[in-house]
Amino acid sequence: MKRIIISLAIFFGIIALFVGSFMGYLMLNQSTVLQETIASIDISSVPDGTYIGNYDQGRWKNTLEVVVEDGAIIEVNIIDDMTFSDGILTAVLFERVKTVQNLDEVDTVSGGTVSSIAYLKAIEDALRP
Q1: How far is residue 69's CA from residue 43's CA, in Å, rounded to a whole number?
Q2: Which residues contact 92 (CB under 8 A, 6 or more apart)?
Q3: Which residues of 1-17 are buried (b: 16+ CB within 10 A; e: fewer)?
Q4: Which residue, among 111, 118, 109, has the nearest Cα to 34 in the 3D structure?
Q5: Which residues contact 78 (CB under 8 A, 6 or more apart)?
Q6: DSSP H/E element including 65
């Protein structure tokens, strides 16, 4: 009986360690991303073309392709996505970017603030002169 209790204690200890490590990974660099500010970029002054932008903060690492035509962002494509991505979040955020055309005025997606900021920083990197 004593062996069973010790075995269960070790088993649950290992599970707790695994879950704790995973949760730590999920939170890694989150505060750094949340402190980022999005720069205002005059899209109308960006020449037509396809631009590549990156952002790298732990699991919020991404690479995007931004297409500018006639002084407006017409398309944003993901080249290399984050570890845990959400297709609905990206669709909503990229549509907001195309509608607003000013990165510092784009509202982040509720429930995906950190991911939204990471994507916006990659777009900013692509369009920065």
Answers
A1: 10
A2: 109
A3: eeeeeeeeeeeeeeeee
A4: 118
A5: 62, 63, 64, 65, 85, 90
A6: strand 62-69
Torsion of CA 38, 39, 44, 50, to 10 degrees: -60
State pLDDT tens for residues 54-95: 999 988 999 999 999 999 999 999 999 998 888 899 999 999
pTM, two decimals, is 0.82
The β-bridge relationship of strands 72-80 and 62-69 is antiparallel
Closest by CA to 61, choosing from 119, 11, 13, is 119
Q: How far is CA 43 from CA 46, 92, 129, in A?
A: 5, 20, 11
Listed residue (108, 118, 110, 38) closest to 83, CA to CA:
118
14 confidence band (pLDDT: 50, 70, 90): confident
